[in-house]
Amino acid sequence: MKYKQTLIIGIGSIACLTAALAIAAPKWQSGMTGMMGGPGMMSGACAMGGSPGMLKGSSPQGQDIGVIQTQLDELKSQLKLSKEQQVRWDEFKLVVKRQAGSMLAHRQEMLEFMQSSQTLTLPKRLAFHSDMMGKRFASMTSYSAALTDLYQSLTPEQQGILDQDGFMGCY
């Protein structure tokens, strides 16, 4: 009787674990695992996670500048910008392209760091992470300013399109 209960509990536990892994595996396959066990900062859209609206169709290997260009072109077409709004759009587009290049460099730095971090002291690892966070913060600040300028130049209908698209580029 005890052997039968143990066997049933064991089989049930294995089945539950297998089901949990089957459900979670697709999320983990897209990149490094994050602190809480889910997709990490190097997965998905802009190498820092992100929603499907951020960069639809981006590859697991990273950001392709061509993908961003296509998305910017599609978004511009949807917005139907006036000549006056075009100036803000051009400024925004320049920032987005600059950020995409910066994000590719950031991703490469992170990959190189992960490969060499085992030999670094803890203070050097923390300094590296602090430096990278500072760069990303500066990038986000620049992106946010450009997006805000563009957004303020749009009509309420155009703002709604941008709100729905959720395009956040690479900051």
TrEMBL record:
InterPro entries: LTXXQ (IPR012899). This is Periplasmic heavy metal sensor. GO terms for cellular component: periplasmic space. It comes from Photobacterium chitinilyticum. It comes from the Bacteria. It holds the Pfam family LTXXQ. Keywords: Signal. Coiled coil: none annotated.
